[in-house]
Specification:
Residues 5-139 form the Archease domain. This is Archease domain-containing protein. The protein has one domain: Archease, Possible Chaperone, Chain: A, domain 1. It is α+β, with helices and mostly antiparallel strands and 139 residues long. 28% of the residues lie in helices and 41% in strands. Strands 1, 2, 6, 7 and 8 form a five-stranded antiparallel β-sheet that branches.
Length: 139
């Protein structure tokens, strides 16, 4: 199974769910869901690759660091991402890549600005042989 994403109800913000056969795939699914809140990621070409490295005290904090590092790299580079890979994932470190292109309001049909991933409703669990990661993103 490839990484996938879904959403859950939240009063003021948006809950993002990443799902995968591995924890890395679930992290990738969460990243896809995060960027799909902002634009239709199917309309984004993955022509540029940005190196992503982050670290944290534990795996839950690392998930939030991953999402917020992606947001920061997208902002710094004026990009939007559509595809993600993770080469290394440990309890405390992550190395991967984000693929995307320069943001273009006409092409990408911007939906919602995401300010950041939060610790609200953060969870990482295994459900029926799938890894599921959840958090609320601040819009």
């Amino acid at each position: 199974m490839a990484a996938s994403f879904d959403y859950f109800e939240h009063v003021a913000d948006i809950g993002v769910i990443g799902i995968g056969d591995t924890l890395a795939e679930a992290f990738v699914g969460g990243a896809q869901g995060l960027f799909n809140v902002m634009v239709d990621i199917d309309q984004v070409d993955g022509t540029r690759c940005i190196d992503i490295t982050c670290s944290a005290f534990d795996i839950q904090e690392l998930y939030i660091e991953w999402l917020n590092t992606l947001l920061a790299k997208a902002d710094i580079n004026g990009m939007v991402f559509c595809r993600f890979t993770i080469d290394q994932l440990t309890e405390n470190t992550l190395h991967g890549h984000a693929f995307g292109e320069t943001i273009n309001a006409m092409k990408h049909h911007i939906k919602t600005e995401v300010k950041g991933a939060t610790y609200s409703m953060l969870s990482i669990e295994k459900v029926n042989d799938k890894f599921v990661v959840k958090c609320v993103v601040d819009v």
